[in-house]
Amino acid sequence: MLIVRNIVIEGKHQKPILLDFGYQPNGMPHPIVVFAHGFKGFKDWGHFNKVMEYFIENGFAFVKFNFSHNGGTVEQPIDFPDLEAFGNNNYTKELDDLSTVIDWIENNNLIADKEINKQQIYLIGHSRGGGISILAAHEDNRIKKVVTWAAVADLINRYSEEQISYWKKAGVIYVENSRTNQQMPLYYQLAENTLNNKVRFNVELAAKNLTIPHLIIHGTKDEAVPVNEASKINQWNSTSQLFIIEGAGHAFGASHPFSSTTFPPYAQIVLDKTLDFLKNKSSLY
To answer: Helix/strand/coil (H, E, C) string of the chain?
Structure first.
């Protein structure tokens, strides 16, 4: 197994993108999984390194990355030393980052073309990364399948009119990270970016117009994104597959830091179901 970590690529918004890439060298063309983390997430959170190894062991190349404005830095990719970047993140930047990562897959000279199948790029997104992944899969025909784990169904209407009004006057609101005890800023530019791109950022519209296979996985005990959001996405996309895990929470039993040699039971179910979907030729249109 070959894994190269913390590759720095140039983003489109004055911040670099940090990514990990891996595969099993054997001269065979591997389909490629790209993993997008969620809000207040990062590529090395919890069990994500082990998730990468799981897919590599099962015949895939795997890319996971930090969104350029997730709050991490090249020097400190774990956690959130750059809160200014975090506060200036928005959905345009995340979609651009994801597109840049796929550009890198297509154009990098890190590995021989015989080792990756650039015609089989699959996307997995968790939480907000799931909503972003649905938008990206709708926009980018290089993506051939998409899997969403505990995905949000709405990126636009997440704040009330009163909250938006206060946000505009104050210029910033804060969200707490209970794990790091940080007050993390969200500058009003996020609201402006969202309100100015309501069609592009409409998850419902994107889901209804997806023309590739889509697997939706969600837990009934999700404390961050209600399970009914998965049902909504499934209703919007008549060809999607919905898999509900009774009792599973938002991270499917994983936490950060993660030191176990085995996956939590719910996470194992998620991985096995995802693997079956990505390997199943019948889910190719």
So the answer is: CEEEEEEEECCCCCCCEEEEEEECCCCCCEEEEEEECCCCCCCCCCCHHHHHHHHHHCCCEEEEEECCCCCCCCCCCCCCCCHHHHHCCCHHHHHHHHHHHHHHHHHCCCCCHHHEEEEEEEEEEECHHHHHHHHHHHHCCCEEEEEEECCCCCCCCCCCHHHHHHHHHHCEEEEEECCCCEEEEEECHHHHHHHCCCCCCCHHHHHHCCCCCEEEEEECCCCCCCCHHHHHHHHHCCCCEEEEECCCCCCCCCCCCCCCCCCCHHHHHHHHHHHHHHHCHHHCC
